[in-house]
Amino acid sequence: MEIRTRLRQVRKTLELTQVEFAALAGVQANALVLYEAGKRTPRSPFFAKLNEHGIDVNYILYGTSETRYAEKLF
Predict the structure, then answer these.
(1) Which of 50, 59, 71, 73 could be 65's S-S partner, Cβ–Cβ 3.0 to 4.6 Å?
(2) How far apart are CA 16 and CA 55, in angstroms?
(3) pLDDT number for residue 31
(4) Of the candidates 18, 20, 3, which has an alpha carbon nearest to the alpha carbon of residue 56?
(5) pTM score, whole prediction
């Protein structure tokens, strides 16, 4: 599974729209659309902001998780 797929999975698990998730990550919604489409790769500030909000960046990047997402995504 790719980063873009896991990113979308996490967003949907949290029941957030692309606009809401993008705001949480400090980017514009159109940037998130490109990330989820695999047309652009998020940079570290994006992931740092998600981490500040308790989102499991390790799962998004590497597909491994020990957090609350594990139960919902697998």
Answers:
(1) 59
(2) 12
(3) 98
(4) 3
(5) 0.82
CA 25 – CA 32 distance, rounded (Å)? 9
Which residue segments constitute the domains of the chain, with CATH numbers given? 3-73 (1.10.260.40)
CA 44 – CA 27 distance, rounded (Å): 12
- Tens of pLDDT, residue by residue over 29-52, are 999 999 999 999 999 999 999 999
* pLDDT, position 6: 96
Q: Which helix (H) or strand (E) holds 70?
A: helix 69-73
Task: Estimate the crossing angle of helix 3-13 against helix 29-37, to 10 degrees.
Answer: 130
Residues 6+ apart with CB under 8 A from 32: 18, 21, 22, 25
pLDDT at residue number 74: 44
- Please report, as a single letter, which amino acid is at residue 41: T
